[in-house]
Structure formats: structure tokens, C-alpha cells
Design goal:
alpha+beta, 5 helices, 2 domains, 12 strands, about 325 residues, elongated, about 45% helix, four-stranded antiparallel β-sheet
Length: about 325
Amino acid sequence: MKPINQVERSKRWGQFLGLYAALLLLTTLCWWLSIALIPRLTSVQQNQSVQEILAYKKQLSGTDKMLTALEQGAPLTDTWLRSFYANASALDQQFPKPLFMATTNSYRQLAGEYENARKEGDEGVQLLNSQKIQLEAKKAALLAALAATGNEIKAVAAAPKPSAKPAPAPAAPTGPAINPGVYGPFKPLLISGTGEFGKNNPEINASVQFMIVRERQVVLGVYFETGGAETGTQAKITERKELYTAPPGFKIVGLSVPERTPWRISYVDKTTKEEQFPIADGLMALTIHGNTAGLDVGATGASSLSIQLKKQIKVELEKE
């Protein structure tokens, strides 16, 4: 093999230096691209995620409105359930990520609880579920407020006691009570049919219960359903009537009557006259008008439930 001369050696050395410089330039370019472009791509991805969350929240507002209407006493119908589940399925298709689907499923499970309560004929479950949602929301807000004000609470606890004695707290009101009276009439809302029972005998299901809400109010939970498959018309109403509100600085801890204990009336109405039913050992009387001489359910319908409280109910208060 012939030795490489000086000219050939210089040529190959120049080629090596050129390739090395090109490699160094390429490495520098890749480094610059990683610094300049990757943060921008990350920012774009974050913006896309935020926009996706906002879009999901906007789509979910319709589902929230349906549940809110149900909690405020709107009837739980097959049409409502079909519309609700259709909205939930549309959300799953539009937002298939696990976080979104888990949230949508929680809404779907809540609707399932309402549907099961309706199938079992226990309207009290629907009222309690509504109470549970509100209480959980209040609990979350309270925990957030406590976490935000933890330092302030500690500072107040560690501060020296003032020399002057604070003014004594007001004494609990003596003998707060709910006096006898008449509540209603509560008219059922048309769910299906023409609103006319005709010569058919409607089935009547009614219940009344006293409830303490958020330790601040006493409400009367009312449920009234009339009609049936054989009558061709179905109607019902679920409503709450406020009876008493605690004064500032006090909370309600008890009643002189059972709380959250529904008193129920169920029968087949075979006349067009009002009928009265004493319940709860004379505490109340329900006046029910199921089948009527004219239009039964609707704008001018006469089917109704009235409640006469005949005895005083005492309310037990404590200082907060």
C-alpha cells in the first residue's frame, strides 16, 4: 500500500473537520429547537385542556338544570329520564377522557337513584336524596372556608382574653312553636293523559312528613299522586312548605313530633266528593279530592290535597 502524501492527508483532514462542524451545528440547532418550541407546544396543550374543560362545563350546565328542577319538585317522568340519559350519553361521546366520564357517571348514578325510588314508590327517598346533595355541597363549602381561615382561627385562639367581660349571649326564645293551620291546596301536575279520569276510579297515594333542613328550618314535605294506568291519566306533585325558621344565633335540634316519618294514605277514589282522613293520632287531617265532577288535572283541575294541622308542634332550639 502506498503511503498517503501530504496533499491527500490534508484533504481528508479537511473533510473530517467539515463533518465535525456540521454535526456540532446540527446539535446546536436541536438544542435551540428544544428550548424554543417545546414550551410553546406545552402551552398549546394546556390551552387545549382548559378549553376542553370549559366546553364540558358548559355542556354539563343543561344536566345541572334538569337535576335542580327535579330537586325543586318537578315530576320525575319517563320523558325526563330519557332526556337525561340521552344528554349523559352525548357527553360520553363528546368527552371520552376518564376524568370527564367519571363525572358524567356520577350524574348518571344520581338519576338512577331517583328512578329506583320512583319504581319502589318511595317518594321520601327522592326528598332525602335532594337533601343529601344540598348538605354535601354545604359541607364542601364549609371545609373550604375553614381551610382558608385556619390561620385566622389559630391567631384568635392564641390571643389574650380581653379584660372586659363580653355581653351575655341572648337566651333561647321561650316556647317556639308551629301553630295549627291549613296548608294547601296542593294540586298535582299532569304527567300523562288528558287530565280527565272520566268514570274510572283513580288511585290515590299521599304522604306528609316534617323535616328539619340545615338546622335552620322546619318544612312540611308533601307528596300527592293520583290516577293510574286504568284511568288514562297520571299526575303527581312533590313539594315543601316552610313552617318555621330559627332566629339568628340558634339552631333547631328537635321537634315534639316524629321527624322524617311519612304518614301515608292510599286508596281508590270511587266518588267525586272530598274525603277527609285524620292521621298521626289527630295531629293532622288530610282533605283529598281525587275524582271530580269536572276537569280533574290541569289549569282548572280540581283534584287537590289540603293539610290541616290541628295540634301545636313545639320546636327545640339550642345556641350555635
